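hi got a favour to ask and not much time before my train. below you get a single protein, a line of residues and a line of whole numbers that encode the local backbone shape. could you go over both lines and see whether the tokens make sense for that sequence. a few lines back from you is plenty, here it is:
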Amino acid sequence: MDLVGACRAFVYVSDRGSFTLGAAAARIPQPVASRRVAALEKHLGARLFDRTSRRATLTRFGRDMLPSARRLVDLAESMEHDAQRARRAPFGLAVPDVCPTRELALLAAQGRREGLRLDPRPAPPGERIHLLRSREVRAAVTAVPSGEATWVVPLGVAAAAEPAVAVAYVETLRVGRTDPPAGARRVWIQPEDDVPHIRDPLTRIRDAVGLRPGQVAVAASLASAAAEVLASADLLLCSRRQARELGLHWRPVGEIRLERGYDVSADDAGDAEPLRGALHESLGRCLGALEPMEEIR
């Protein structure tokens, strides 16, 4: 027996003194209300109403049971309200701040179709982890080595002038010992790539080919790094999509394969499942692991 449904019919009928009016208030057909009340009476072992052709009058037993039934109905309705509010609550998701706004909007739209009201929170790698640990978001896209990643984004270097080569080699930036420091070209690392599994291999290549320490530098922001590259012969470590958006010319790095790796972290494993499942492709496009369909075509 549906105890909550039966109690709801009992409460509505008792409030209105009529099975017809009570059923209408409960938004159920009158025969359904009658069956539910009859089932409740059978379950409780006594009659709740004295029925006449026009009125439904509470019995003494019915009057005694009405407060308990009303509490159960109120609790059930409160639970349904809380469930609706929980379903509508934003799902905070920390994402890389290099994700394009349009792709984030498409991800959020896809999330709504899957029953998730995603609230993307763009942030650099360290802040994304902080947002998750402080429970300001329910999940975070975290930077991981490509071998551990769900999504992988190839990196290369981009320049303002189109190179004459198909592959860029870091060693070509080497300058003589007597050359002034101001003439040394640099590779700029943006905050999204200031993580050990990207920064450290590039630094080791710098040292192996004899570049000066300052020739691989970490920028305060992507905008400041791009400004340095646009105003000079410096190079920006970035994805192909970022180079295209900035109007730069991208080439892969010859000495080493550099890649951004991304995975999803969440305190509740269930919060990560839709991001790796139904939203995998949309999130991949945000990250640059998948090109937008119109660009593929």
